[in-house]
Amino acid sequence: MLELFDGPVPVEETLARWYQEEAQSNYGAFIPFVGTIREEDGISGLSFDIYEPILNSWYEAWVLKAKEAGAIIKMAHSRGDVPLHESSYIAAIFSPKRRVALEMIDEFVEDFKASAPIWKYDLKDGQRIYAKDRSTAINGAGLLGGKA
Amino acid sequence: MITIEFLGPIQKEKITLEASTLNDVAEHLNKDAELKTWIETCAVAVNDVMVMDLNTSLKSGDRVSLLPPVCGG
Lengths: 148, 73
Fold this sequence. Notes:
Largest sheet of chain B: 5 strands, mixed
Helix content of chain B: 10-25%
CATH architecture of chain B: Roll
Helix content of chain A: 25-40%
Order of helices and strands of chain B: EEHHEEE
Structural class of chain B: alpha+beta
Shape of chain B: globular
Strand order of the largest sheet of chain B: 2-1-5-3-4
CATH topology of chain B: Ubiquitin-like (UB roll)
Shape of chain A: globular
Number of strands of chain A: 7
CATH superfamily of chain A: Molybdopterin biosynthesis MoaE subunit
Order of helices and strands of chain A: EHEEHEEHEE
Largest sheet of chain A: 7 strands, mixed
CATH superfamily of chain B: Beta-grasp domain
Strand content of chain B: 25-35%
Distance between the termini of chain B: 36 Å
Oligomer: heterodimer
Number of domains of chain A: 1
Number of helices of chain A: 3
CATH topology of chain A: Aldehyde Oxidoreductase, domain 3
CATH architecture of chain A: Alpha-Beta Complex
CATH class of chain B: Alpha Beta
Strand content of chain A: 25-35%
Number of domains of chain B: 1
């Protein structure tokens, strides 16, 4: 299930709920990844734009991939502003045995970083500044410039 | 007519255009000096499906989206 929140992701509530949802599902492994906003370069927080139609199709492809491996994925992400020391992202894999979940959480989070249509902005001195240097061009970028 | 929309940090209103392939879109957008730097790093979707081919054909009502570099999480 893909969950989007306006502002910080409620980490404790979400993790507890996910745990409860699958408590009787016979998964031996539950591996969450929680992303928290760090104090860095004088920012007061981060802010996010999301393009939901493509995020949803990207996520659905991962749900199918997980299913083929006998696993399930859950993900939560923030829209808009998230202050320091709050969390903007949780991903989790449940699988019968640990190895599938350990490997899939790594692959999923890396692909998320490279492909999910989410844009990050630093909140600094009252401005919202696109985190261009920390962003990754999506596979196939530059098509219209003839560089793909 | 097709519509071109600019996602995320590209501060630009959507535009409409007569185009039969993505090549036509590329030709049009490359004339815009302000967009040129974005174009080099943007991925492209047609009707919310990512595309990799400039020869992708377009029909009236299609929506072309430019997706700049991403950084979720």
